[in-house]
Amino acid sequence: MVRSTSSSAQRARRLLADRLRELAGDAGLTGKDLAARCGWHPSKVSRTATARTRPSEDDIRAWCRACGAEDQTGDLIASLRAVEGMWLSWRRLERAGLRRSQEERLPLYQRTRRFRSYAVWAIPGLLQTPRYTEDVLRTIQRQRLPTDDVAEAVAARARSGRGPQPCATCRRP
């Protein structure tokens, strides 16, 4: 499968691969057994089961047939289509540039009254200073985007009122 930068698309892609792997396991099939039943090379089964290759709808049909789980075919194909839709939505968002993505999220932020955030590798957006935001967005832009609109994206985020805000209950020195 094409590697998406969207964590939700990646998670959905892995879940689909996990479900396919579970079907084979429930049927008592090894990767080689499944490949033989489907007429595939064993590496195709491995790549599909580890979410490195996107299965086609025909692949899912063959996988389910080989596992004796034809009743799962429709649901798995629906999951595949949802994953593809998530990836396409993310790519469209990236292609439109960073400024537009910041502006499109503004109404959501304006309606939100309570934020809960957990981030392991980055400071959550609401706590980012303009300089930090610029550095994060610049990294994203360099890796994946042909358009350099980082300054406009930072300005759009600043206009939205997102970013560090004074704490009403905190004392200033």
UniProtKB/TrEMBL annotation:
InterPro entries: Cro/C1-type_HTH (IPR001387), DUF5753 (IPR043917), Lambda_DNA-bd_dom_sf (IPR010982). Residues 19-74 form the HTH cro/C1-type domain. Gene3D superfamilies: lambda repressor-like DNA-binding domains. Pfam families: DUF5753 (PF19054), HTH_31 (PF13560). One of its GO terms (molecular function) is DNA binding. CDD domains: HTH_XRE. This is XRE family transcriptional regulator. The lineage of its organism: Bacteria, Bacillati, Actinomycetota, Actinomycetes, Kitasatosporales.
